[in-house]
Design a protein that fits this description.
The structure holds two protein chains of two kinds.
Chain A (H helix, E strand, L loop, with lengths): L3 E14 L2 E14 L3 E6 L5 H8 L7 E6 L2 E2 L5 H11 E4 L11 H12 L3 H15 L3 H5 L7 H13 L5 E5 L7 H16 L3 E5 L3 H4 L4 E6 L2 E7 L8 H14 L2
Parallel strand pairs in A: 3-8, 3-9, 6-7, 7-8
Antiparallel strand pairs in A: 1-2, 1-4, 4-5, 9-10
Chain B lengths: L1 H14 L1 H38 L5 E5 L4 H12 L4 E18 L2 E11 H6 L6 E4 L7 E4 L12 E6 L2 E12 L10 E6 L1 H10 L4 E9 L5 H15 L5 E5 H7 L2 H35 L1 H9 L4 H42 L9 H22 L2 H4 L2 H10 L17 H11 L2 H30 L2 H8 L5 E6 L3 H10 L3 E14 L4 E7 L11 E4 L7 E5 H7 L6 E6 L2 E11 L8 E5 H4 L7 E8 L5 H12 L3 E6 H45 L1 H10 L3 H39 L13 H22 L14
Parallel strand pairs in B: 3-8, 5-7, 13-18, 15-17
Antiparallel strand pairs in B: 1-9, 1-10, 2-3, 2-6, 2-9, 4-7, 5-8, 6-7, 11-19, 11-20, 12-13, 12-16, 12-19, 14-17, 15-18, 16-17
Helix pairs in contact in B: 1-10, 2-8, 2-10, 2-11, 2-21, 8-10, 8-11, 8-15, 8-21, 9-13, 10-11, 10-21, 14-23, 15-21, 15-23, 15-24, 21-24, 23-24
Classes of the chains: A alpha/beta, B alpha+beta.
């Protein structure tokens, strides 16, 4: 088990809906470790994405504490959170969210240049990452609407990794992709995780979840259980059965 | 169909409330100015005609310094035998050049003094009491001069000829043809005792005031010239002064003409901006809602219904705003009227004018509807299936104009530039807006520099020749006067600058300025094309008149004065507003080919530090009754131009305020549209770690290339065209070529101010970015 990179204590998040208060996350206390591929699972409405966005500083908790090392990010204001996100977090979204008006390369550079002013170094890093995920030079020059969903999501991963984040947060990264391109994207995530990149991924897809070494199951805003699948090397029956057993136990 | 269209309108309005409010404000401003312009240029001008009719005023007024029976009979006979005459009135009066302090300067004019009962009861050209009082001994002045210092019960000191007389102001009156120093003749009404006192003092000669009504008012200038020629032929030595309907109806409405010209220009510029914004909004709406519009067509909506909804939305808002703007103009009109009346001197009762109101609303409603119809033509071509596809293809095949890997610009400006270069419509709106506002700024600078800070260029252009002193002496004392002046160490320069009337035989009567040596005049720009006359067969004529008569330099024209004719070659063209573009310049020798000057006006430049009034007093004592008039030119000019200065200050303030309003609303509109369209992008950028401040800067920078380029272009371009453009507004008063100083530093500072203001406004408008959070992506 690696070092703790992120820690929550009694994290709660509530929304007001139609005048009634809806508690989406309830007193969640958890620790995320360096190098882990943590998967957050749960049924729709369980609070998976809300937890991911709270952990990544995109949203603020209603109650409780989130600590990144010595920094209590739950106390940060919006601008401090923005600085935290750009320096320490990477994001991969289900809807990909590349900016339409920018080329694939520029989407990636826009994130990189935010932290590193050395343009040459940023471009070099982007090229290395593009090469690593199999995005050709031709595709890099194209606009998001001109490339396939799989290519766009791999570009999204490159963008998420541009600033060498401590944690890469992925919200249903294969949700909008077909099984083949989804598989490729998962391979990319696994590959970076193997190289030491911490990943936190939200999914309700069992095949995607099997890439994680640590599975958290969320139900009605609380972590119902946790399963250690061990490091992913390749798909195997034992891993599949262990996850299926755990999920069955959780009432999946 | 109406019901479905209303549903769409409701839905569109809900999504674009802010944009609609901004468009409505632009239309409202345009309507406000349009209605003011229409009111000023139609009914306001017609007010002169109405008052003229109500007071049964004359079309030609002539004051002759001879009230003998012989002269009266001659005048009656002369007029009666002319078939153009409809009615004549001959009134005993006194006539003398007089002056009094007004508005920090001096009013100096040919005054005709009338006894109270006579003035208010003349059959032709009676005066109308505006304000009376219980004072029974004193003076009534034209209402134009009612001011802080000149009011009922206060004392006004008048210099009548060479004598200072104090009068209590008993009240104010309105006289159409002689109610202002701009009319050539200005009336002053005295109570019976004061009239007798003046008569007995002998300082103002008795005169016959002849007011003639014509069957056709367009003949007024010709008739005036005929009358003056007839009198001067028969009585060559008699002094007289006259005016005509044509001259007075224009000269009393100079500020109205300038103001309505400016208002119309501003109204149409603002309307242009509003129309461009509306067109851009519609084109953008169609582009952004292609899929939805396709879906509506798929479920059976027709193009007509979709266009109808847009028409209802924009034309409805435009008509509502236009109604509000036209209505609001009635709140501003009283203040504007007050300023105008201080120049026209003719009271105008503000009332509702349905025609300008309807025309303003009609122009705005019509132009907006036309723009909506033209801009929404694309709706007809939308096929549901294509629309669905186009929605996806919107961003295809565009060029990456600012690749981040290659650009030398830092990240935030580079991202802003990237967006700016990909949005032609926004850039077009910004460019048009900034070009118009640059014109406003340069115009404000021009007016400030030439009419507020340093009035010399304005005075040179509008007044013409100025000096420290003007003295008019009788002909027989002229030599002695000149000898003394040449020996007086206080006199720096003296030259003949005498104004008299001549008549162009193929045209109308012209105000001739006779000078012994035009190289001595202070305003060497008086002839803006060609040169001053040098020899006795040369003449320079007003450019406006020359244009009307198709006269060119080198042409020969025949002029008459004192019953004699002489031909002159045109050497150049003049422009001053004094006689509304109906004047000419002659050398003394040239004039004397036709007649003799019975008296002569000399302009003097005095040495620095000489007290002009003290100098005048001394000369008056020295020459006594041989010195007809003395004028402190500086004070007289100051009194005359103070009205224009006040008017210009108000106009400059209004123009600058309007510029700020326009830029604010246009930027608000664009920022709102942009934030609406790029909400998702801002969410993504925030998720990646961009701070609100960076995104606000990025948004403000996005507008800057267009703002900076168009402002610089606009300022430079407008600095070149502002003089010819201002000349268009002043053409009516005889100014053909404007030579105002273009204030380069003011224009540059104004341009920089515009850019900074635009940047600050864009930053302020972009504060809404604070509300966009990355979690927007979640839901």
């Amino acid at each position: 088990m690696g070092e703790i990179v992120l820690k929550t204590e009694n994290l709660s998040k509530s929304f007001s809906s139609g005048g009634a208060l809806q508690h989406v996350l309830k007193n969640i206390s958890l620790e995320l470790y360096q190098g882990d591929f943590t998967v957050i699972m749960g049924a729709s409405g369980a609070g998976k994405s809300t937890l991911l966005y709270a952990l990544s500083g995109m949203d603020t908790p209603s109650l409780g504490k989130i600590a990144f090392g010595e920094q209590v990010i739950s106390d940060f204001n919006q601008d401090e959170l923005a600085l935290f996100r750009r320096r320490h977090c990477g994001f991969v979204f289900q809807q990909i969210y590349l900016i339409d008006g920018m080329s694939v390369m520029d989407n990636v550079l826009a994130a990189g240049l935010l932290v590193n002013k050395d343009k040459k170094a940023v471009v070099r890093k982007a090229e290395e990452l593009f090469d690593a995920v199999g995005i050709s030079e031709e595709i890099r020059k194209k606009f998001p609407a001109q490339i396939s969903g799989g290519e766009a999501q791999r570009a999204g991963i490159v963008r998420g990794l541009m600033n060498s984040p401590e944690i890469l947060f992925a919200d249903e990264p294969t949700g909008a992709l077909n099984s083949k391109t989804g598989f490729d994207v998962l391979n990319v995530l696994s590959k970076f995780n193997e190289q030491g990149q911490s990943v936190v991924m939200v999914t309700h897809d069992m095949r995607s979840a099997r890439r994680g070494n640590r599975i958290l199951y969320l139900k009605d805003g609380v972590i119902l259980g946790e399963c250690d699948l061990g490091r992913y090397v390749h798909e195997d029956q034992a891993r599949q059965e262990k996850l299926a057993g755990f999920l069955a136990e959780m009432g999946w | 169909m109406m019901k479905e269209s209303l549903l769409l309108v409701h839905s569109n309005l809900r999504k674009a409330k802010g944009q609609m409010v901004s468009i409505a404000v632009l239309v409202l401003l345009s309507s406000l100015m349009l209605n003011l312009w229409l009111m000023l240029s139609t009914d306001y001008k017609q007010n002169f005609e109405r008052v003229h009719t109500r007071l049964h005023a004359g079309h030609v007024t002539l004051a002759v310094d001879d009230n003998s029976n012989e002269m009266r009979d001659f005048l009656t006979e002369m007029n009666k035998k002319d078939s153009r005459m409809e009615e004549i009135s001959l009134t005993p009066a006194m006539h003398m050049v007089s002056s009094f302090s007004y508005n920090g300067g001096e009013i100096h004019s040919e005054f005709v003094f009338l006894e109270k009962d006579t003035a208010f009861g003349r059959p032709v050209g009676r005066a109308e009491m505006v304000e009376d009082s219980s004072y029974t001994s004193g003076i009534y002045l034209p209402v134009l001069y009612k001011s802080e210092d000149i009011d009922v019960g206060k004392e006004v000191e008048m210099l009548v000829g060479s004598r200072k007389i104090s009068y209590i102001v008993c009240g104010f009156f309105n006289s159409v043809m002689a109610g202002s120093h701009n009319c050539s003749i200005c009336e002053a009404v005295l109570t019976e005792d004061k009239y007798q006192e003046l008569e007995e003092s002998g300082c103002a000669p008795e005169a016959a005031l002849c007011a003639v009504r014509l069957k056709d008012k367009s003949e007024s200038e010709d008739y005036e010239a005929m009358l003056k020629n007839a009198v001067s032929e028969r009585y060559p030595h008699v002094r007289m002064v006259s005016n005509s309907y044509a001259l007075v109806s224009q000269s009393r409405y100079i500020s109205q003409m300038v103001c309505s010209g400016l208002l119309s220009a501003m109204a149409f510029f603002v309307l242009l901006i509003a129309l461009v914004v509306i067109a851009s909004n519609i084109i953008h709406y169609i582009g952004e809602n292609m899929k939805n519009l396709g879906a509506l067509k798929a479920i059976g909506y027709r193009s007509r219904q979709l266009t109808g909804a847009l028409l209802l939305q924009f034309a409805g808002a435009a008509v509502t705003a236009a109604l509000a703007g036209a209505g609001l103009s009635y709140c501003l009109f009283p203040s504007l009227n007050e300023m105008m009346v201080s120049q026209t001197g003719i009271p105008y009762p503000v009332r509702f004018l349905p025609l300008p109101f309807l025309v303003s609303v009609g122009i705005l409603g019509g132009s907006v509807s036309a723009v909506v119809c033209v801009s929404s033509r694309r709706l007809k071509r939308i096929e549901p299936v294509t629309a669905f596809r186009q929605g996806v293809q919107t961003h295809n095949f565009r060029r990456n104009r600012v690749p981040l890997a290659e650009t030398r610009v830092s990240l935030i400006p580079a991202l802003a530039l990237k967006t700016a270069l990909s949005n032609v419509k926004h850039n077009a709106i910004i460019c048009i807006t900034m070009l118009v506002l640059s014109l406003f700024v340069v115009f404000s600078g021009l007016m400030t520099e030439n009419m507020i800070v340093n009035m010399e260029p304005f005075i040179k252009l509008i007044v013409g020749e100025t000096a420290d002193s003007c003295m008019n002496v009788n002909g027989k004392k002229e030599e002695e006067f000149l000898r003394e002046m040449n020996l007086d160490s206080r006199v720096e320069k003296i030259y003949l600058y005498h104004q008299t009337e001549v008549r162009h035989v193929d045209g109308i009567s012209l105000m001739a300025t006779v000078c012994d040596d035009f190289t001595k005049v202070n305003n060497q720009e008086g002839v803006f094309e060609g040169r001053f006359p040098k020899y006795d067969n040369e003449i320079a004529v007003a450019a406006k008149y020359a244009g009307e008569q198709n006269l060119k330099a080198g042409d020969e024209i025949t002029v008459t004065a004192d019953g004699k004719e002489a031909a002159y070659i045109i050497t150049g063209f003049t422009q001053t507003s004094n006689n509304l573009g109906k004047d000419c310049l002659l050398t003394r020798e040239g004039y004397e080919r036709m007649g003799e000057l019975q008296n002569a006006s000399y302009y003097l430049n005095l040495e620095e530090g000489v007290d002009v009034d003290e100098f005048h007093r001394e000369m008056k004592n020295r020459f006594g009754s041989e010195m007809n008039t003395v004028v402190n030119v500086g004070a007289a000019v100051a009194g005359g131009v103070s009205v224009y200065m006040r008017l210009m200050k108000a106009i400059v303030a209004a123009v600058l305020l309007l510029s700020a309003l326009i830029i604010t609303f246009v930027l608000y509109l664009l920022v709102r549209t942009m934030l609406g369209n790029r909400r998702r992008d801002y969410g993504i950028l925030k998720a990646l770690g961009f701070t609100t401040g960076q995104l606000i800067l990025q948004t403000a920078f996005y507008f800057m290339p267009a703002v900076v380029i168009s402002t610089i272009t606009g300022i430079v371009l407008c600095s070149f065209i502002i003089n010819p453009l201002t000349g268009l507004f002043l053409r009516g008063i005889g100014i053909v070529k404007c030579t105002f100083t273009v204030p380069v530093s003011f224009a540059a500072a104004g341009g920089a101010g515009l850019i900074v203001f635009a940047f600050a406004a864009a930053c302020l408008m972009s504060l809404q970015i604070r509300r966009i959070t990355p979690k927007t992506l979640l839901f």
